[in-house]
């Protein structure tokens, strides 16, 4: 598009020069040649034209060449030329059979009209034409560069807008991997330590080292729960249909059973669990994972409560036929 605009402007500049040459040849002011009916070499009629008078600001140098070879400079010329250049340019034009064209050796446009007593020749400087064309192309190139910069910035903005969810998903995945590694590190460390203790005294019976065996078993079960949880998250992110795992669950009964399991743990740590459980709250869900969720909440509450302290557990019916479970404890908030 920009190239087409440039070529069109270049053609307009060329047409302007041609109009200027034609207008200069048809102006009055050539002595001794009134009304002689000058015509171009292609046969177009000449004569003065008031409508073309001073039609262009392009500097033009006009001469009349008589049949005897003498050259007369038109007093209405708007440009000046060296006499030697004029003589050489006139000779080259007269030797040519074309009534208009370019003299590359002199950097001139020319146009010729012939009459009964001689010829009229108009010259225009080609340098100014080239400067105008080049300057227009430079400005056009600057506009093109600004447009390309604008397009680049818009493209960059849209690209970042489109890739932002991908970047956020990648960051979430990295955080998930870091959290999973942290969670798996603790049971692995315990298992390795207990295994090392068992290996130190192989002569002892299993009953004598039952506490280490139980510890390994408990940590292995914890790792299994962690991996199952990660598998659930991965399936959810992948869009796997989890509806086959859902069933009718009595959430009130599930919470009460979980509290019974943690009452002893809380008592050993100097904590008291206060509960307010609304009975008969039944919902559709995954009983195994709901139980795991309850255990996680209660474990964290016991672990981060100041001793002595109180843990408050409340289950009640909420709006829109939903159930709301809250587990509260004292102490500093977890970042």
Unreliable segments of 5+ consecutive residues = 28-55
Radius of gyration: 50 Å
Shape: rod-shaped
Number of strands: 11
> Can you count the helices?
6
Taken in chain order, the helices and strands follow as: HEEEHEEEHHEHEEHEE
Summarize model confidence as the mean pLDDT: 80
Q: What proportion of the residues is helical, as a percent range?
A: 40-55%
- Could you describe the largest sheet, including whether it forms a barrel? 6 strands, antiparallel
Question: Which helices and strands occur, and which strands form pairs?
Answer:
Blueprint: H1 2-25, E1 39-40, E2 60-66, E3 71-73, H2 83-95, E4 100-103, E5 108-114, E6 118-125, H3 126-200, H4 210-237, E7 247-250, H5 251-268, E8 271-277, E9 282-285, H6 287-303, E10 309-318, E11 322-329
Parallel strand pairs: 8-10
Antiparallel strand pairs: 1-5, 2-3, 2-6, 4-5, 5-6, 7-9, 10-11
Helix pairs in contact: 1-3, 3-4, 5-6
Question: What does this protein structure show overall?
Answer:
The chain is an alpha+beta fold. The protein contains 6 helices and 11 strands. The strands form 3 sheets. Strands 1, 2, 3, 4, 5 and 6 form a 6-stranded antiparallel sheet that branches. Strands 8-10-11 form a 3-stranded mixed sheet, with helices on one face. The protein has a two-stranded antiparallel ribbon with strand order 7-9. Strand 5 and strand 6 (118-125) form a beta hairpin. The longest helix has 75 residues, at 126-200. The relative contact order is 0.07.
């Amino acid at each position: 598009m920009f190239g087409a605009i440039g070529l069109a402007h270049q053609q307009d500049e060329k047409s302007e020069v041609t109009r200027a040459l034609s207008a200069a040849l048809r102006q009055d002011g050539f002595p001794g040649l009134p009304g002689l009916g000058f015509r171009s070499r292609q046969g177009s009629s000449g004569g003065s034209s008031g409508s073309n008078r001073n039609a262009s600001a392009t500097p033009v140098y006009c001469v009349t060449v008589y049949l005897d070879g003498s050259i007369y400079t038109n007093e209405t010329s708007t440009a000046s030329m060296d006499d030697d250049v004029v003589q050489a340019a006139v000779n080259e034009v007269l030797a040519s059979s074309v009534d208009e064209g370019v003299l590359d050796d002199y950097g001139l446009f020319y146009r010729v009209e012939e009459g009964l007593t001689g010829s009229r020749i108009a010259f225009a400087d080609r340098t100014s034409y080239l400067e105008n064309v080049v300057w227009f192309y430079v400005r056009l190139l600057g506009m093109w560069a600004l447009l390309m910069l604008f397009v680049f910035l818009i493209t960059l903005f849209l690209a970042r807008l489109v890739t932002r969810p991908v970047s956020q998903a990648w960051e979430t995945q990295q955080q998930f991997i870091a959290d999973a590694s942290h969670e798996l590190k603790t049971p692995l460390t315990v298992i390795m330590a207990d295994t090392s203790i068992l290996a130190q005294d192989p002569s002892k019976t299993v009953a004598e080292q039952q506490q280490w065996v139980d510890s390994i078993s408990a940590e292995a079960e914890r790792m299994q729960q962690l991996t199952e949880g990660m598998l659930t998250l991965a399936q959810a992110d992948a869009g796997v249909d989890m509806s086959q795992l859902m069933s009718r669950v009595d959430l009130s009964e599930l919470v009460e059973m979980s509290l019974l399991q943690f009452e002893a743990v809380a008592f050993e740590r100097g904590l008291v669990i206060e509960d307010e459980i609304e009975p008969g709250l039944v919902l559709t869900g995954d009983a195994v994972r709901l139980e795991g969720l309850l255990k996680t909440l209660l474990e964290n509450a016991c672990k981060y409560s100041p001793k002595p302290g109180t843990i408050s557990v409340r289950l009640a019916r909420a709006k829109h036929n939903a159930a709301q479970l809250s587990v509260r404890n004292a102490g500093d908030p977890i970042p």
